[in-house]
Amino acid sequence: MTFTDQLRKENDDIFQMIFNHPFVEGIGRGDIDKKAIEHYIKADFEYLNAFMKIYGIALAKSTNRTDIAYFHDKINFILNDEIHPHHNFCDYIGVGYEELQGHPLPPTADHYIKHMMYHAQLGSLGEIVGALLPCPWTYLEIGKELIQTYRPTEEHPFYPWISFYADSRVEKTTNDMRNLLDQYATHISPEEKLRIKDAFRKSCQLELKFWEMAYTLEEWPSQEKVNFT
Ligand SMILES: Cc1ncc(C[n+]2csc(CCO)c2C)c(N)n1
Fold first, then answer.
1. For residue range 64-84, what is the model confidence (pLDDT) as tens digits?
2. Is the ipTM value over 0.85, yes or no?
3. What integer is the mean pLDDT of 176-194?
4. Of the chain's two ends, which shows fewer C-beta atoms within 10 Å, N or C?
5. Is there an atom of ligand 1 within 6 Å of 125 CB?
6. Interatomic CA distance for residues 150 and 143, integer angstroms
7. How many domains does the chain have?
């Protein structure tokens, strides 16, 4: 069993919770509360900006041209391709993409970005990749699960979203990242492996919480919004 096979197996509980989350099931059924989609896009636009910056840090820590080219290519993919699923959601709710950009991050998205940034700034290349890998991996499996369960056709409102993530390009991103990490893990200490496992699991948990954040319209507490009595 490879190192990333082991990571996937140890985190199957969280993967299953993601597949069963009501927001994710709503994508499959083709009905999600419009406010929840709006909340998701606002946070995800900023999440993708942070993700590109972390790819940039990973690029800076790369030791060969194959890895440099990989991270360069992935920044391009987010800039030019990841906007398509966002547009699908924006069209569904009838709101312009520009209106959903530049908003402050709710607590979970803020936590997720800072978690990745922590490993990017203080960790090894392996730790960064461990923190980044659940992002393409959970979305790839969500896409595949939704295709299998709901068999969406082109009339499905989220057909572009689902087919984008079930596609071979996201599969390739996931597999390339897995190969990089598996290769890396052949020559590291048990302590570093534990740090990578911790980064990976927390990112899986934060992926789950990101769906929950959108579904519950999570906000920071403030005097006006919270009544504890
Ligand atoms: C919270 C959150 N997690 C994952 C993705 C999906 N995603 C973001 S970047 C990327 C490609 C990696 O190169 C993928 C698959 C998302 N949009 N939002």
1. 999 899 999 999 999 999 999
2. yes
3. 96
4. C
5. no
6. 11
7. 1
The amino acid at 192: E
Q: What is the CATH number of the domain that holds 148?
A: 1.20.910.10
pTM: 0.95
List, in order, residues 6 or more apart from 196 with CB less than 8 Å away: 7, 126, 127, 129, 130, 181, 185, 188
Our answer on whether the CB atom of 45 is closer than 6 Å to any ligand 1 atom is: no
Distance 25 CA to ligand 1 centre (A): 18
Ligand 1 close to Cβ of residue 210 (< 6 A): yes
**In a domain? residue 222:** no
Q: What is the mean pLDDT of residues 18-40?
A: 98
Residue identified by tokens 């056709």 is 153
The range of the structural domain enclosing residue 176 comes to 3-215
Instruction: Give the mutation target among 23, 55, 135, 180 for probing the ligand 1 site: most ligand atoms within 8 A of CB.
Output: 135
**Ligand 1 pocket, 136 CB below 6 A?**
yes
Residue 135 CA to ligand 1 center (angstroms) comes to 5
Is the Cβ atom of 158 under 6 angstroms away from ligand 1? no
Asked if the structure places residue 228 within a domain, the reply is no
pLDDT tens for 97-145 read 999 999 999 999 999 999 999 999 999 999 999 999 999 999 999 999 9
Say how far residue 115 (Cα) sits from the centre of its chain: 13
227: in domain: no
